[in-house]
Design brief:
This protein has three helices and no strands. The chain has 68 residues and is an all-alpha fold. It has one domain.
Length: 68
C-alpha cells in the first residue's frame, strides 16, 4: 500500500479494522490475525499492535491473551 503522508500507520490499521467490522468481514468472536493485517497493508506488526491497543481502549475489540 502506498504511504499516505501525514497519516500515521496506526490510524491506517484502525480504519482497516473498523471497515472489516462494518462490512462483516470481522465478526464477534473472530480471531484477528495481526500478521495477516500487517502483510495486507504492507506494514510491520508494531502499528498493528498499536491499533489493537487503541481499538481495545475504544471498545471495538477485546483481547483474550494466550488463545492462539
Amino acid at each position: 500500500m502506498p504511504k499516505k503522508y501525514g497519516v500515521k500507520e496506526k490510524d491506517l490499521v484502525v480504519t482497516h479494522v473498523v471497515n472489516m467490522v462494518l462490512t462483516g468481514k470481522l465478526r464477534s468472536g473472530d480471531r484477528l490475525d495481526r500478521n495477516e493485517i500487517a502483510q495486507e497493508l504492507g506494514l510491520s506488526r508494531v502499528p498493528v499492535q498499536e491499533a489493537v491497543v487503541q481499538l481495545e481502549h475504544d471498545g471495538i475489540l477485546s483481547t483474550r491473551y494466550h488463545r492462539g
